[in-house]
Amino acid sequence: MATPVMAIVGRPNVGKSTLFNKIVGERIAIVEDRPGITRDRIFAASEWSGNSFRIIDTGGLDFGEDDEIAGRIRAQVELAIDEANVIVFLVDGLTGLTSADEEIADHLRRSHKPVIVAVNKADHPGRLSHAYEFYQLGFGEALSISAEHGLGIGDLLDEIVNHFPRDQEEPTYAEDAIRIAIIGRPNVGKSSMINALLGEDRVLVSNIAGTTRDAIDTELTYAGNPYVLIDTAGVRKRGKVYEKTEKYSVLRALRAIERCDVAVLVIDGEQGIIEQDKHVVGYALEAGKALVIAVNKWDIVEKDHKTAQIFEKNLRSHFPFLSWAPVVFVSAKTGRRVSRVLELSSHVAEQHALRIQTSTVNTIVQEAVSLTPPPTDKGRRLKVLYATQVSVKPPTFAVFVNTPELMHFSYVRYLENQLRQSFGFEGTPIRILVRQRS
Ligand code: GDP
Ligand code: GDP
After folding, report:
1. Whole-structure pTM over 0.90, yes or no?
2. Fold for domain 5-162?
3. What is the pLDDT of residues 212-236, one digit of tens each?
4. Contact by Cβ (8 Å): 53, 72
5. Half-sphere exposure (CA, 13 Å, Cβ side) for 308?
6. ipTM of the prediction
7. Does domain 358-436 have CATH number 3.30.450.20?
8. Does the CB atom of residue 59 touch ligand 1 within 6 A?
């Protein structure tokens, strides 16, 4: 089930960022700083009484040239309507109801999304003379809060969580269908790739399943295998203001990544690799998804027999943490090798779900340890006692040791490489948990 999403909307200066920060607290900082991962604050994960959810940082979206405040508010509200399950409409209790608030309310009312009105800056409970005005917006009771002083936030969160859909309708697909998310920065050719895949002679597009109004997935069959392309509508541009922002496209990709088995990272072969490519793939990696890298627009790259090899070498040096991901050179325009993307997706999905017997894992790990024993640290030596695979998607191993503090990052890396050498795991991240054996 997809994680519910909440968005805060409201005119400038009502306290949206203050509320966002209050709810999210310190949580964002925790996940930062892992290799290959750049974190934008597009949305943050949070939790309240056992319910995980996400908050879109609508205030943090940069709407580019659309500088007019009215335009920015509209874009923000549209984004919230399209993407959120619950909307918190934040108003300013010190200034009272304004015509801008009424405009936002009109817009929100037409969306039929659950809306909670929160009257901010109620720093002194009972002294908010304006709070009653906001009842006339027609969204029911308006909750008084103080984002700055942390008052009423618990009640607001209770209300938010109450409005989350109980069972989000997830469409059902063939059980063995491989879910693919085509990801990449704008203009690399994602929608062309989807068109090419669906237009392939040998591809059978069986039907189109709607999840929500915006996320349209497409099922297809190739060489007898079922696949689902996640969020094909989202990839094809629809021309709303907010869709032009880079952060929005990352947000969209994130939600597709969450629902996929395999992420296909599309790179522009003509332009080469830029920083933004790393952002997008960082999320797939963090989510533990299988990965295929498709270098697109290969038709317009001037090349000889070595060009692909050189490109791949360069690409690998940009993505040292993705050495396990297969690379394919394609042209969405001519259709060349696009079906290979599906074949590779099947292969990496299999690797992603691979389960190795404990006895075999132990044999390999013990062999690895005797080949290169763990280094000593101040006279103490790490002992690797036992290893087992605890889960799949991605393959996750627990390695039990005498003293976890003695385990170095480089030794974990070494064990990972040994597991890869023995079992492949092509196209999938693997995780190693170091645990104390008591
Ligand atoms: P945004 O533009 O809606 O994101 O608003 P900000 O979060 O940037 O806040 C605008 C101003 O309102 C800032 O000066 C905040 O310090 C102030 N503010 C936010 N929440 C409260 C509150 O609960 N009480 C008071 N008195 N001021 C607040
Ligand atoms: P998206 O923003 O990632 O969905 O990218 P689009 O699919 O809209 O493609 C961006 C531009 O690149 C369009 O002008 C496409 O025609 C062009 N394009 C996409 N794939 C290829 C390709 O394989 N070869 C060439 N020459 N152009 C391509």
Report:
1. no
2. Rossmann fold (3.40.50)
3. 444 578 888 999 899 999 977 667 6
4. no
5. 11
6. 0.72
7. no
8. yes
